[in-house]
Structures are given as structure tokens and as C-alpha cells.
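User: Here's a chain of 182 residues. Predict its fold as C-alpha cells.
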Amino acid sequence: MRGKTAEDQGLLELLDPVAEAAGYAIVRLRLMGGEHARRLQVMAERPEDGDMNVEDCARLSRAISEVMDAADPIAGEYTLEVSSPGVDRPLTRLADFATYEGHEARLELDRLAEGRKRFKGVLAGVEDEAVAIDLEGEEATALVPFAWITEAKLVLTDKLLERGAQARAQRLTSNSDQQTSE
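Assistant: Prediction complete.
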């Protein structure tokens, strides 16, 4: 899910170590467009707090550009975009589903399950290699194999916005404390 195509997967293999060395984790990578005017979109975050500010984006963009210029893995011209996953972020790693337990999400599967491919509900954690989700209108918690999920994204809710606001406030307090001690 972090990359859709074989080309995306190859770029992830090249760029994951670059991101890790710079102190970031790639959440999702997509190479979009046809033969001309392609766009390489990289969503990343700091593993310790999930944050990704403008300076982080610029730093990671420079590190990626250096490697991409040297390796030249994309034929033709492309534009590099490095961004934060945002509040209503995609969920691309099994650990993401545990981290955001209690929040609403939309899942899309690569196959039919109970006659449908799309599901919406509240994340209820992870069990082995499956995502637990409390689906709207269902009594029991559903277990969806992680391998079946092709797309997953948090739903923008007041609870999610509150979580984001609390995280920002905590970072600001932490940054203020660091500046005071210097």
C-alpha cells in the first residue's frame, strides 16, 4: 500500500534508506502521470512523533533529490513533491491501524468480502496480520487481512482533529521548553 506499482516499489527500495538516514519514514510514495509531466509524490513523517513540518519536507526533498539525480531511476522529467500525510492521513502500514485505534477509517479491499470492497468503521486495533474494525451497523468486530487492503484512510472527524490539536500543542510546549533551557 505504500506504493501501488512495481515502479513505486522500486523507488521505495531506493528511497527508504535515504529517508531513514535523514530521520524520516516514508508513509506513501506514488509516481503519477504518463510519459510526460510525471510527479513523484512522497508522504513522510518523523517516526518518533508522526510530525512533518515545512523544514522537514525541504530537508527530505534535498536528500531525495541528491539520490534521484545520481541514480536517475525515472525516465524523462518529473516533479518531486514531499509532504506530510496530513490529519486525515492514509494508513499504509499495519502499525498505523494500531496507532489510530478508536478513530474512524475507510478501507478498500482488492476483493469482495461480504459482497463489497469498501468498508467504513472505527479501528479496533490489530490482531496478527489483520486489521480489526467495528463496522457501521454491525455488532461484531470484523477482522480484515492486511494483505487484502489496497487503500485505507482516516476519516476527518472532531475526534481526529482534537488529536491533531493536542499533538501540535504538545510539540509547541516541548519546543518552548527546549528554547527556554538553551
